[in-house]
Amino acid sequence: YCLSLLFSEPDDVRLVGGGSRCAGGVEWYDQGEWRTVGADWNQEDVAAVVCRQLGCGSTVSVPPGDTTVGIGFICSGSESSLRDCFRGYDLRPELTVICSDLLVQPDISLTDSMGGVFRGHQGPEMFRGYNFTITCSTQPQYPGGSFLLTFTGSNRTQTQPAVNHSAAFLFPAADDSHQGNYSCVYDNYVFSHNFSSESELLSLTITGN
């Protein structure tokens, strides 16, 4: 029970309007409603606590907010959640936060049109000589970006722009050099910063037909 609480989404803080659960204006759930959070001289400290509480990594930037004001919080920056910070009674400028884990984890998948792939014990297995496609995709958070397909065990990489949030890498004829671990890295330039997120590994085995 304690473990499920530990890994559940925090229910009293959120970031809104930034296209990601890890970016946007900070809101605090208080007395039955979501209220704007404000900070001024200690913005970086409050932002660090918010990113940590949301499991969103570290703070990348604290863009200037608009003219909105919110509940003032004062944090040292080391707290695990906003609940541990001092809540003031004065209103301060709205706090907007961009955290490092902005992009969701992309997906990686393998397909073939010739029936040369089958599921093995360690993952997909591919017959020699058959073509196959590795597709990288991500959720539609932000337009643009690109996918880097990496192949472990060599410095062989391929890059393609993300079209409709995905990219397909075609391999014309499978041979032993294609055996190994592949991953997709999604890169995008958002909020004046470069962000990237890597998929899980896809382990491909090449076998005789």
UniProtKB/TrEMBL annotation:
SUPFAM superfamilies, sorted: Immunoglobulin, SRCR-like
Pfam families reported for this sequence: ig, SRCR
Keyword annotations from UniProtKB, A to Z: Disulfide bond, Immunoglobulin domain, Repeat, Signal
Keyword field contains Lipid metabolism: no
InterPro entries with a match to the protein in the record: Ig-like_dom (IPR007110), Ig-like_dom_sf (IPR036179), Ig-like_fold (IPR013783), Immunoglobulin_dom (IPR013151), SRCR (IPR001190), SRCR-like_dom_sf (IPR036772)
Residue ranges annotated for the SRCR domain, each copy included: 13-113
Domain Ig-like residues, every copy: 106-203
Disulfide cysteine pairs (residue numbers): 75-85
Single GO cellular component term: membrane
PANTHER family for this protein: SCAVENGER RECEPTOR DOMAIN-CONTAINING
Protein name (record): SRCR domain-containing protein
